Amino acid sequence: MKKALITGASSGLGLAIGKLLKKKGAEAINLSRSKSEFEDISLDLTDDKSILKAIKEIKSKHPDFDLLILNSGTMPLAKMGEIEFDIDNLFKINIIGNIKIVNSLMELIKKNNADIVFTGSTASLYGYPEHSAYCASKHAIDGLIKSLKIELAKENVRIIGFHPGGFNSNLRNGQQIEGYMDSKNLASLLLNILELPRNMEVTKIEINRNKGAQ
Fold first, then answer.
1. DSSP 167
2. What pLDDT was estimated at residue 183?
3. What is the largest CA-CA distance in the chain?
4. What is d(CA 194, CA 74) in angstroms, rounded to the nearest whole number?
5. Cα–Cα 20 to 30 A to 130, which of 4, 34, 108, 151?
């Protein structure tokens, strides 16, 4: 790993991943609306013009990236029939923007033998009350991973679905929940997976909280 593009590296898990990569001598670039301690490329996943501008900047300044971590997400919750939040924005941030970024960078991904990490959730694999729209957007990530695995089967590209359960992040407006996992520990786990030999690929990893350890 020499150069990583990370969506949402300004806080939470993305920030923790970027810091670990930096310690290991890799370069981390934050793709986000918010500034970070890394180099920043402005990106608003709800805005097509912003995505196109970010892609152009990546191709101009960082065409040699070898790791793409699609980490940004949003998690508004409500029961079906009671949803008042912007469903379109939920899907743009959690899945549609990811598809557009991967599609636009595919030529470089293949050329660079880059790894692609999708930060999903246990909600990518299961259903939860009040999570209907959120789970649907995260399930789409799992479908995208499965299809990309088939399309890129002959390429030296690793595709990793990283699916943690509840962990403390800015998804809950900075609220720290006792017993939830620490983003630093999750980042460490992901880096260990990425450091495996190239002929080893963890396609899907599900990380659950050990509730008995609270």
1. B
2. 87
3. 49
4. 25
5. 34
Domain 3-213's class?
A: alpha beta
Q: By the 8 A CB rule, do 80 and 135 touch?
A: no
Q: Indicate the pTM of the whole model.
A: 0.92
Whether 85 contacts 32, CB under 8 Å = no
Please report which residue ranges of the chain form alpha helices under DSSP H: 12-23, 48-61, 87-91, 97-111, 132-151, 183-194
Output the 3-class SS for 111-162.
Answer: HCCCEEEEECCHHHCCCCCCCHHHHHHHHHHHHHHHHHHHHCCCCCCCEEEE
User: Is 151 exposed, middle or buried, given 0-12, 13-18 or 19+ CB atoms closer than 10 A?
Assistant: exposed
**Alpha carbon separation from 79 to 171, 189, 196 (Å, rounded):** 18, 33, 41
SS3 181: strand
For 22, the 3-state DSSP assignment is helix
pLDDT digits (tens, 9 = 90+) for 11-42: 989 999 999 999 999 999 999 999 999 999 99
Helices 97-111 and 132-151 meet at what angle, rounded to 10? 20
